[in-house]
Amino acid sequence: MAFAGFPDETWAFLDGLEADNSKAYVDAHRSTYQSAIVAPSAALVDAIGPLLVERVHPDLRAESKVGRSLFRLNRDVRFSADKTPYKTHFDFIFWLEGDQPRSRPALLLRLTSDAVLVGAGRMIGRGPVLDAYRGAVADQASGAELVGIVDALLAAGCELSEPSRAKPPLPFPADHPRAELLRRDGFHLSRTTAQPAELSSAAFAGWCAAAYAPYRPLLDWLARLG
Predict the structure, then answer these.
(1) Of 23, 47, 28, 90, which Cα lies nearest the Cα of 203?
(2) Of 118, 172, 178, 203, which one's alpha carbon is 20 to 30 angstroms from that of 193?
């Protein structure tokens, strides 16, 4: 199907799930979930992919499959204090070329019943890429470049994700000039706004592409880590 925006039923479903976060609610509204969330979400991914390549970064990928650009509605509660079974939002990811979308530099999109979050970043975890990240942050030239990118996005209204640790890891001193970035094992910058009028029409794909354009320098910096 061609993307034509999200209908009012999308947000009514999420509001209902907020009030009754249960399998019984989801089962009773399964057809609405399929028609108002699953189908338009897949259509949005198909529509936005070419726009991202054209307007944001030539190496961005978008695939309308769960595990690629799409996420499941149910939550992984194994390691979470919140045991509610379902998310009351839905997410998208558009990543730079690579086999593991969740570990590559990526653009993020989250839709709730009253807001839209757009952002970019990278979850690094452990291993050689984390070592490369810390080395690049500590390096005077590449570290200063990243600070400039982050500061520009913060000035534009973005927020930086929470740090992974209370202080920089050894051997970096606590008073390192880029301690705030060294405290993070990867990070995201994002901006949350009220739902735009375009959300209910095909124009939302273009709205997203325009919102993502300022993140190109961050994607490029993170991609150099390997």
Answers:
(1) 47
(2) 178
Q: Name residue, tokens 């194994």.
A: 78
For position 171, what pLDDT does the model report?
95
DSSP state of 169: P
d(CA 48, CA 62): 8
Q: How far apart are CA 7 and CA 40, in angstroms?
A: 9
Query: Domain limits of the chain?
Result: 8-223
8-223 CATH: 3.30.930
Closest CA to 150 of 178, 185, 171: 178
Neighbouring CB atoms inside 10 A of 222's CB total: 25
Its pTM stands at 0.94
> How big is the chain, counted in residues?
226
> Residue 36's closest CA among 18, 14, 10?
10
Q: Give pLDDT, residue 78.
A: 75
The segments of the chain whose pLDDT lies below 50 read: none
Structure tokens at 45: 């991914």
Contact criterion met (CB below 8 Å) for 102 and 68: no
Lookup result for tokens 């999200």: 6
Q: Decide if 106 contacts 121 (C-beta within 8 A).
A: yes
CB atoms closer than 10 angstroms to residue 61: 19
